[in-house]
Design a protein that fits this description.
Helix 4 packs across helix 5, helix 8 crosses helix 9 and helix 16 packs across helix 17. This protein has 20 helices and 17 strands. With 480 residues, it is of the alpha/beta class. The chain is globular and about 85 Å long.
Length: 480
């Protein structure tokens, strides 16, 4: 080690000097001495490594105040929640990266109550004996879908896995090639079926499958027919798929069950808002499908869950499967799901109270009003003075997202932010790293904030962020 390097290293404050300083003691009182010592060692090690690098920066090492500052920043970051609130201004209502559906007020209150006390999760209050966690939502699901019975697991992939394993383990499951979807995150129907202990029997082609393809594939090893909703993509042009009513008739004639994976699954008729190709769950049940699976956190607007409704005899078999315990949901999911389902007892209430549908139903005029209010509060009246940033209202296009209703655009409205000195990527970074991250999207030379996916209170956060942006532009001419 060179003498110059040793000299620089000796200038670093000792660990005990940092920890025993007044601010070090205050940090120890807040975070615990052991954690503070660990943080100081980490900060000093980083500096030692930096000073030892050949040809590195030969500026003086940090003194006590600087080391304390870095230690404090490390401890604050360590204790800051990783799961944080973000403002979704992307125009994607069910954004998978942001946790999909936002829960209704009733569901949030149910979650809070379930977290604060013991519950009758598996206790029958009427009989004073052990009960089933499925009972809390089964009756509601039966009422809302018209099915004979229902159960809930942790997600829709788990629901499909449990269904095929219960009804067809060791046998073949017939699926159209055009329905062998990748759900997302590399979870694919063929792999889910393989994990379920069944053999995939593909029929038809990618774009066209006929009833005769299914009929020819049925044999003594066939366990069930699986129909999969291609909820995250569309094949157009020269296509054909087999209607579930035709498949129901074929399955009944062959003595095998028909299972349909709806992916999203809505309890409401979305055609009222111009959205098509999404058959409501009650209609699918009415058309005779033996088991229907769908997600709780997509078009239902509830927590992550895999919901199964259908024939009682099949549901009971699934409940008895050992996999059911591995896939079961906890009291929080059940509390939020039950509260969400109760919103549907009055459909008008669901449109008003469930955020997914409230966002879908809000008028373009209301979105324009929100955008204009933000502009008025942050830009209008402050004078231009050749400000490098401009904010204007523009027509945008929103989407449902979450693998739901692909290719179906929703008319929306938003804000476009431009700069003559900063790139769109730099503006995007400013908003993404704001105190409450604001996530929009880039389009050409603009950063866009869509109003449709904002929640109550988000407008105020955007106003504050744009205000700081304007202040920065006035004082510095642009972002630094």
């Amino acid at each position: 080690m060179a003498s110059g390097e040793k000299r620089l290293l000796r200038q670093l404050p000792a660990v005990h000097t940092v920890v025993d300083s007044d601010e070090g003691k205050a940090l120890a009182e807040k975070y615990g001495r052991e954690l503070v010592v660990e943080a100081v060692n980490l900060v000093l090690d980083l500096w030692r490594n930096k000073l030892r690098q050949p040809g590195g920066d030969q500026s003086p090492p940090p003194g006590l105040p600087a080391v304390l500052g870095e230690t404090r920043e490390y401890l604050e970051a360590l204790n800051r929640p990783r799961l944080r609130k973000v403002v979704n201004a992307t125009g994607i209502i069910l954004h998978t990266n942001f946790g999909r559906a936002v829960l209704s007020q009733r569901a949030r209150e149910a979650l809070s109550e379930a977290a604060a006390c013991y519950t009758n999760l598996e206790y029958n209050l009427q009989d004073g004996k052990r009960g089933s966690r499925h009972d809390h939502v089964a009756e509601l699901l039966v009422r809302l879908t018209g099915a004979e019975s229902a159960m809930v697991v942790n997600n829709n992939a788990g629901a499909v896995l449990l269904a095929v394993n219960t009804l067809a383990a060791g046998k073949e499951v017939i699926v159209s090639r055009g329905e062998l979807v990748e759900i997302g995150g590399s979870f694919r129907i063929p792999e889910v079926l393989k994990m379920g202990g069944v053999t995939l029997r593909e029929v038809g082609t990618t774009n066209r499958t006929h009833l005769s393809d299914y009929r020819q594939a049925i044999n003594h090893d066939t366990g069930l027919i699986l129909k999969v909703h291609t909820s995250n993509f569309r094949i157009t042009g020269f296509t054909r798929s087999v209607d579930r009513r035709e498949l129901r008739k074929l399955a009944a004639e062959s003595g095998i069950p028909l299972v349909e994976d709806l992916g999203s699954g809505s309890l409401l008729d979305l055609s009222l808002y111009g959205l098509k190709d999404e058959t409501p769950v009650p209609r699918v049940v009415a058309e005779g499908v033996d088991l229907v699976t769908f997600s709780g956190d997509k078009l239902l607007g509830g927590p992550q869950a895999g919901i199964v409704v259908g024939k009682r005899k099949y549901i009971e078999l699934m409940k008895a499967n050992q996999l059911a315990r591995a896939l079961r949901v906890d009291k929080f999911t059940l509390a939020a799901l039950e509260a969400t389902l109760r919103e549907y007892l009055q459909p008008a209430g669901a449109w008003q109270n469930i955020p997914v549908y409230r966002m879908l139903a809000v008028s373009r005029e209301e979105l324009m009003r929100k955008a204009e209010e933000i502009i008025e509060a942050t830009i209008t009246g402050q004078g231009s003075n050749d400000r490098p940033f401009t904010v204007e209202g523009i027509a945008t296009t929103a989407q449902m997202g979450g693998g739901s209703l692909p290719g179906q655009d929703i008319v929306s409205f938003g804000l476009a932010i431009r700069s003559t000195v900063n790139s769109p990527a730099e503006i995007e970074s400013f908003f993404r790293n704001y105190t409450v991250p604001i996530i929009g999207y880039l389009e050409q030379d603009r950063f866009i904030l869509d109003m449709r996916t904002l929640l109550p209170g988000d407008e105020e956060i955007i106003k504050q962020a744009i205000g700081e942006l304007v202040k920065s532009s006035n004082s510095e001419g642009g972002l630094t």
